[in-house]
Amino acid sequence: MFLDSRLANTPQWWMTKPGDYQMRIPEVFRKCVVFLGRVLPDGNPRFGGTGFFVTVKHSEHRFCYLVTAQHVANRLSLGEWCIRFNMKNGRFVDAKVNKD
Fold first, then answer.
1. What does the DSSP 8-state code read for residue 40?
2. What distances in angstroms separate CA 89 from CA 6, 26, 45, 93, one per listed residue?
3. Per-domain residue ranges of the chain
4. Which position has the higher pLDDT, 70 or 78?
């Protein structure tokens, strides 16, 4: 048995060591990353940061937050920006967001 406590010291037991046991962040979370960028005047995105989503339950409601570094958030607040989601089939989807 292998004890994995990489996630906020929450114990998770495995029959054998996971292949990514030496990584600080488990592979399953690396697959949850989105790419963040500004939309250029020609309408094309220019990516310069990453983020991930966290869902928090409060009473009977769930709230979803996009988490990124402060310097990335500061750049995104200057105008229209976009989020790139990688899909399981190898493609991606871009979602444009206004600065508000």
1. P
2. 28, 21, 21, 11
3. 25-97
4. 70
